[in-house]
Each structure stands twice: as C-alpha cells, then as structure tokens.
Amino acid sequence: MRLHLKIWRQAGPTAAGRLEDYTADDVSADMSFLEMLDVVNEGLVRQGRDAIAFDSDCREGICGTCSLVVNGIPHGPDRGTTVCQLHMRRFKDGNTITIEPWRARAFPVVKDLVVDRSAFDRIIAAGGYVSVNCGGAPDGNTVLIPKEVSETAMDSAACIGCGACVAACKNASAHLFMSAKISHLALLPQGQVERYRRVLAMVEQADADGFGSCSNEGECEAVCPKEIPIANIARMTREYVRAVLRGNP
Ligand code: SF4
Ligand code: FES
Predict the structure, then answer these.
(1) Is 110 helix (H, G, I), strand (E, B) or coil?
(2) Position 29 pLDDT exceeds 70
(3) Which atom of ligand 1 is found nearest the CA of 176?
(4) Which ligand is nearest to the CA of 163?
(5) Is the pTM of this model over 0.90?
(6) What share of the chain has pLDDT > 70, as a percent?
(7) How many angstroms is it from 233 CA to the middle of ligand 1?
C-alpha cells in the first residue's frame, strides 16, 4: 500500500505545531500502525531528517504508553484496541491518515506526538494506593470476596492509564480513568482504609491539574482500549458524595 500521512510536528512544548505531509510506501497489511511509523522514521533518518517522535513501549496493548489520535479518534478506528495493536489491514491503498497527539491542557505536548502524562501519575500518587500492615502475607483464603465483586474490581483494574478517555472528552475529563482506579480499590476489602480520603484527594488533584468535569458524553467509554464502562463514573460520584457527607476524614 501507498499511504498519505498528515502528521503533527511540533519541535517542543512552546513551539508552534503544524500538520506535515508524508508518504508511506510499501506498507504491508500485516504491519502494526507503529511499525508503519517506524518505517517512515527509518526513511527520514536515512535522508538526515528529524524522526517523528511518538511514544510506545510494550506494543502489546498492556502498558498504555502509545497515544495517537488517528483520523480524529484516540487509538484509531478499532474499538477496544490500542494504537499499537491497530493493524494496517484496517486501511486501503491510497488512504490519507491524519495522526495527532492527545489534546488536553493537562497533557502538554513534549514533541511531535509525545505528550506529558505525568498528571495521571500525580492523581495516582494522591490516592491510588492501599495501606498494608506489616507482617507476614495473610493466606489468600482468609479474605473472602464474592466472585461478582472481585470480577467487577478486576475489570476496573484493566485500565492501562493511556489517557485516551481524556483525549476523546470535550471537557478533557479524567473521570473514566479516576473512576476505574477508585472502583477497583473501593470494591475490595483491601481498599477500605483510604476509601473516602482517596476519592476526595484524587478528584482534588485532577481539578488542580486542569482536567475538566464529566457531562456524560460517553466518548471516553467509546475509545477506551480496555472498554472500561462509564458506570464506573456513577460509582465514583457516589463515593465522592458519601465522602463529602461523612466530613473530611
Ligand atoms: S479508562 Fe480506558 S481510556 Fe482511560 S486511561 Fe484507562 S484504559 Fe485508557
Ligand atoms: S505500546 Fe503498550 S499499550 Fe501500546
């Protein structure tokens, strides 16, 4: 395949960015989207030009590092799929593909397609942890958790912190991300010690980092590569209201 690419280039956080045109030749349908970009970069490096900066790590859909908006959709057109798992068979010879970084005030562009997602780390540091008493590890069977509860908690724990939910939201809200973490921990006995402190601290940190609020658009759920349901946001809101009513812990 020969593909026409429009790729966001931006030299640094304060530089002006623009879409630049590139051509990708000899693209195999079996390539992943990131492998296609690797081939484009090899061509640029051979010509002595600056390679396109983009993030990736596992390339297996588990680390949440890859972060490209493909034709206006975070992670591209396949549902429940990270951009590293998107394959070029999804496109046709002669297609034009626009590739941009996540766009949100809380995720400033570092260079080209790379954004700074340390705001998510700050939210996790504010409350996404549990306290554990010292001593020997208790036997797993001593903490009984109904199957349905453990399954729901583990579904929430599937969030890989990629930030696509923020990129898709017109409010740049981090609610789906936060609600996945809060649901995961609030549902389990191990998460009860900080339960109410956690939700208040995480929401406060998200506000401080400039994420918007939720207006129930559902765009986050639609692009989430782990298909985290928006019902988690309702659970987070209930947790928040309970925490406020209980007073500052
Ligand atoms: S909720 Fe989904 S889209 Fe948002 S950070 Fe987690 S995995 Fe990514
Ligand atoms: S590179 Fe790890 S999820 Fe895409």
Answers:
(1) strand
(2) yes
(3) 1
(4) 1
(5) yes
(6) 99
(7) 12
